[in-house]
Specification:
heterodimer; A: mainly alpha; Cytochrome C Oxidase, Chain A; 67% helix; B: 328 residues; alpha+beta; Immunoglobulin-like; Cytochrome Bc1 Complex, Chain D, domain 2; 2 domains; five-stranded mixed sheet; 8 helices
Chain lengths: 547, 328
Amino acid sequence: MTIATVTGKPGEPVVATKNYLTEEGVTLRSWLLTKDHKRIAILYTLSITVFFFVGGAAATLIRLNLVTPAGIFTPDIYNRLFTLHGIIMVWFFLIPSIPNTMGNFLIPLMIGAKDLAFPRLNLLSWYLYVGAGLLALFAILVGGVDTGWTFYTPFSSMYSNGYVVLALAAVFAVGFSSILTGLNFIVTTHRLRAPGMTWYRLPVFVWSNYATSVIMVLATPVLAITLALVAVERLLRVGIFDPALGGDPLLFQHLFWFYSHPAVYIMILPGFGVISEIVPCFARKPLFGYKFVVWSSITIAVIGFFVWAHHMFVAGISLYAGLVFSLLSYVIAVPSAIKVFNWTATLHKGWISFDAPMLYALGFIGLFTIGGLTGLFVANLAFDVHVTDTYFVVAHFHYIMVGGMVSAYFGGLHYWWPKITGRLYPEWWARIAALLIFFGFNLTFFPQFILGYLGMERRYYAYPPEFQFWNILSSAGASILAVGYALPLFYLGWSLVRGKRAGANPWAATGLEWQTSSPPPTHNFDKTPTVTRPPYQYRPEAEPQDA
Amino acid sequence: MGSMRLLPPTASSHAADMDWLFAALIGTSAFILLLVFGLMILFCVRYRKGSTADRGNRMGRTWRVETAWTIATFIAFLGLYFWGADLYVGIHSPPKDATDIYVVGKQWMWKIEHPGGQREIDTLHVPVDKPVRLVLTSQDVIHDFAIPAFRVRQDALPGRYETLWFTPTKVGEYRLFCAEFCGTWHARMGGSVVVMEPSDFQRWLDSQDPGPSLAQEGEALFRSHGCSGCHGTASTVHAPKLEGLFGRPVPLEDGRTVIADDRYIRDSILKPKSEIAAGYPPVMPSFAGQIGEDDLLKLVAYIKSLADKTAGNSQAGRTAGSAERPAP
């Protein structure tokens, strides 16, 4: 990742001599002790990539096991695999993915600030993340955990024979990393906006991360308390959740989902932000209904706190609770639908080009729409009774989390890659990867809707033979998906060394981050910018333009 | 390789209703999906960079469109909500004449007890076209009793009774699963539900060696645990009488009134101080930890069998028990 000062070939933009990659030195120490938000974003990107492939390896083994009805692994190994997959993907990839990498890198650039409000806290957040991640890996290496990422009691607290407390500690610790990041983003957005950068001139990416941060700060402590209580019951046999000790097992589920449903929005809202940046840029048009998109994010963040019990329609909650939580779940689907309509309308009468980021964005809209619509199925009381804990639910949330969020992550990574590294990636390879991911994803997860309605339960290492056809399709899709996810590792890596120099604004995009050089200098802007216009002022002409 | 099946068997009255709801959900989604995808593809082709399509007269103000599609979406969603809610209320309202069958989940098996005392493991035999109500509990962790062919499932929680009812409509054998992750052999915790013609079901019941009925066993436990010392008809202790109690409202000391259902009986045995019947001193000791889930179910069945009796008939359990037993 060292980019020396290079005199470019004729016609190629010359790399800025002063940039964050080299300015503070190139030693390991200068990276590990950096307070620069951009360098911390790079540290985060590298570490979440490691966890993404650890979680992905577990997913590969899971799909391999499910090729045959009898399974390949022993149940104990299989149960540990899906637990590992869930814990790593949720807490060590999805939740930090966009906020801690692109959010960290871009929020100060987008609002015209020199750094986040608390640079040291930002570095601490990364160290907490890495420490927690190592603890989670340690728990896996010494024997693993078989509770599922949901840690349902009293199984997790009294019956499981895995390393539950270690895993709880890891998730507990990584929560603080989320809280610190959220806090940092909130204060930064309030206090460090450049002159003229009013709230309604903020890019939607900043708004989305702001909404996400509010959820992180409010919901994560509830998770920490809940997991601590599980550890207390497990270690000290204090009756909290186990009825045999006088506890209530449903209390755990209420507390857990009070965090974990908003956490779904922690995972998806930043994705909305990324798509809202990419679509206007490649349609050369302002975002349709900016204020509606912004306020739908805020609405989602708020209502997201009042839908948790829709995870519990068959768990033994009262009939009335079911009726209320289902209604609220339908209400929260409305703002999500508004966003999809707005992105689609943004395409209307634009000058659309199909570079890799746009392909990912269009893929995102498609997959998120399917994920969102099947959300209407599982929010439906009677329907949910039939499919709770089946592969229908698994398919639904993978459409949102993987089809949606991971597509958005890759879209954003490609879109801002030139800004982050100063290099362009090979466009055709990127398009091929985007298409492979889209195709492989659908082949992997669409059959799971059918499996779910047929009655195939989650977390089964073996299943009745009549389900095999769809499982084989799903596993075949997963192998394509794996290739699609591995590809960027190679061509993006290649571009670091051989990629063409990017220049400050290769997409002719609006937004402050494109006004500074690529890669940006440590202090982001030589002169604090002044903002005079709303975002996305793409002029109705096809030709590139300056911001 | 398994076949390319798209739908599970439809074998209960609710399952047929559910498939219609499923069709409506698919219809609504397909409409929205076609609309969004259709527009996306249309715009992507028509307004691709380099095309000469007219881009004049762009929509300036957006709030009218936004409001229109927000309201339209919300109304469509509400319709689906009410449909699903209506069915959900239905599967939570068992008919009065449903037969109660007791189910205890434990790692990793389902123990099933018919009212006549017949027991089975991992298989549930039921007659066709007769409503059945399952009373579910668990002895250890949370399990879930799932029958995809009936489109119903319910968690079985330790320390609580949950219920689940259905009316099978088609004779046959259907899959039974545990749907809540419960440990190592979760995937193997299941079996089948066998729906039979009433006459075949009767023959099956007779072919089992039932031993005493649940209520009769409950009556024996009622004596051996000393319950009858206070609650028995001959007792002179000032304790609530149990004849005619089940299913009736009970006024409590704190002013509330609760229905004496399975849950209330169970809680009164394990946590007698939590809901004290009005007018009785709270002197009953707790039996928590002394009576297993199986025995609790028998006690509940016994007290339930007293529902139609009036105080004074000490043969209540025996008669009720044999009444539920099929005639030879």
